[in-house]
TrEMBL record:
Organism: Candidatus Devosia phytovorans
Gene3D superfamilies registered for this protein in UniProt: Glycogen Phosphorylase B
Coiled coil feature spans: none
Protein name according to UniProt: Glycosyltransferase family 4 protein
A matching Pfam family: Glyco_trans_1_4
Top-level taxon: Bacteria
GO molecular function, one term: glycosyltransferase activity
Domain Glycosyltransferase subfamily 4-like N-terminal: 49-205
Amino acid sequence: MVDKNETIGTASWMNGHAVTARIERGQASKLTIALIGNQAFGLMNFRGALIRRLVGQGHTVVALVPDYTPATRATIRDMGAIPLDHGISRTGLNPWIDGRAIWKLRATLKQIAPDLVLAYTVKPVVYGIFAARLAGVKRRYALIEGLGHAFIHAGTIKQRLLQGFVSALYGFALHLTDRTLFLNADDRAEFSRRGLVPEERSQVVGTIGVALDEWSVAPPVVEPITFLFIGRLLYEKGVAEFAAAAEMIRADFPSARFAMVGDLDSNPSSLQRETLEDWVSRGLVEWPGHTDVRPWIAHASVFVLPSYREGFPRATQEAMAMGRPVITTDVAGCRETVLDRVNGFLIPPRDVHALAKAMRHFLDEPALIASMGAKSRDLAEKHFDVDMATNRLLDAIDVPR
C-alpha cells in the first residue's frame, strides 16, 4: 500500500534503453493493481473498461506492456492509469533475453509493490507471474484468453516440442497463481486435463464484454451483400478458408463483397504478404489493413470468423452489438457467440464448402440479414454487456465492486 504523497522511482526498459518513470499519488489508494500484458493496443481496447472501473473505485492501476508509443501512453494516462514499459517481447523464446526481462520486471514490481497482479496473454502470464512471485507480490492472477499458436498447431515434431515446452512453462507459472481465469470452459478443461492448473484454483469468467452504447445497431446491408472478417491475419483464424469461400461464391454471385480488416502479424502462423496481395489483386478480398472497424461493420451484411479456436472473440461481439448475423466455427470460444440458425450459422473448422454454404444462405435469402442480425443484438444485450463482464472479473480477482 502506498501512503499519501509517496513517490516511487521505477526503471523500465524498452528497446534496450533504460527509462525512468515516476509514480506519484496525490492521495492514499485503496489498492495498487498491476496489469501485465503484451501490447498497448490490446491493453487499451480489451482492458480499458477494467482500468476505468478500478480507477473510478479509487485504486491505483499500473499498466505494463512492452510497446508504448507517446500516443498510447497518453491514452492510458487519460484513463487514469500509470503506463510503464516492461521488456518481455511478444514472441520468441530466448532464455538469456527472457531471463533478463523477468529479472527487470521483478525489480519494477518490487518497487511498485502492488497488492495484486493480473497478467494476461502467454508470455506475460508465464514470466509476469514468476516475476511477481520473486518480487513478493501476495496476490497473483492469470487470465488465459485462448490457447494460442502452440496448442492449435502440433503436427510437426518442432510444433510438438514447442507445445511441450509452453505447457511446462504454463504448468510452472499457473501453480504460482491464486487463481487462473479462463474465457471459456473448453480451455479450462484442456488445461486441467493436461495438469497445468489446479482445478480448485481456476474459474471461467466468460467474455470481457463490449460497451453496448458505443456499438449501436446499424441498418442491415443487403446491396451489395458483404461478408466481413476482422482479426489478425493468421491461418488459424481461418483466413485461407475465407478467401477460398470468397472465390467459390463469386463464381455465382460476382457482386458479393468480401473484406478482411486486420494486419499481418509476427506470429508464426501469420499470412504471408505475397499471398494477401495475390488475393487482393485477383479481387477475392478487400483489405484496408488495420483500421477503425466500426464503419466496416456498419457497411457489412454478415460477420465471418472461421477460426480454429478462440478465447472469446471480441470482434464477433462487436459485430453482434451492431446487429450483424454471424458465421463462425463450432469450436471453443466461437460457439459461445452463435445460436445455430438463430443469429447465424455454426460450421465445422477448416471446411471451405461448409463456409460457402452458410454464406449462400444469406445470398439466397437476404431477409435473414435483418432477422438474424436483430437476434445478434438481443444476445449481445443479454450476455455481452461490458459492465456485467467487468463485475465478474472483479469478483474473480477478489476486488470489491
